Model the fold of this input.
Amino acid sequence: MNMIHKLLSLAALALTLSVAAEAQQALKFQAPVTSPEINPDHSVTFRYRNPKAVTVQLLGDMFSDGKPVEMTEGPDGVWTFTSAPLEGELYLYSFIVDGMRTADPSNMYLNRDIATWTNYFTLSVEKDDKGWYYETHDIPHGTLSKRWYDSPTLGTTRRISVYTPAGYESGKDKLPVLYLLHGSGGDEDAWVDLGRTCQIMDNLIAEGKAKPMIVVMPNGVYFNNAAPGYAVNMFQPTILNSRSDSTKEIEESFKDVISFVESNYRVAKGYRNRAIAGLSMGGRQSCAISRSHPGTFGYVGMFSGVVPPATPEEEAALAEQMSDGKAPLLYWIGCGKDDGVKKNSMILKNYCEAKGYPVEYYESDGGHIWRNWRIYLTVFASKIFK
Done:
């Protein structure tokens, strides 16, 4: 090796060591303050260091009026606010610094709703409260897989998230499947991140409140084809309201999802071993898919979903299912008392009762929010496949 080659090699080694040292320094970074801090009385203290800020506010869903509260600046430039004691729940929050919304730099936990990133934390006051089900405990844990599946109907490949319960990989039993659909603007990550599906299922199964099951979370929007980081052409997610532009194709191609799952996972087949549920747009899709695939799903969950009346053809198919003994075993409807879709949910409930379909209606506080949809999943999952 000549001198030039030696010098180049030494320079490359120095650059490598420099990058490695910088990476190690980044890993050693310590948050300047502790935020949020859960206190013994279950109040929560939020802190934000910024001596140059003029005003800092806290915006969080722990405040029922939805308005931001003022934070107080201390002599060290740390802005602080302590809440009243809170009940067990998953809470979302952000800071508003001089009118600009920003994340809490001391809290690494963020989740995405459409194109908005928000900090979150969980709080549990006692075992089995809502917050407890959203947290990770010392119990057997399932596996979350991110998969591609082929959709011949759409002529493309698409993304899907699949939860398998603890022991699935080493077991031999065939398991029932819950197909869980997101709302408008979401994707296959929504129920995992915002819905806490893995934590809820782990805890319910460990307590014996739900049967071990596979949970399949597909992307329910046609042209939003891939998870962030996988899209061929990067774009900003948007809320999609048009049935023809966003979901009709998914309803028509749902057989491809079922085919992929039943070809790649150890599943128990038959309508008694299949459930479908979803929130908002996904609630409508769940009902539409169950109607267009008669005899396929034994359980249908509609979480704050606006469901159109059945067509004469769908009415006939449902009547035939009833006579053949293959009608859904349960229509489960969940809605918040302040939700704008409550009227539609009541119409659907009354319709099912008038037709003699097995239906349960669950009403919670609040409106069209994730806080309710997590509850609905917890309740619905404990009722199916039994």
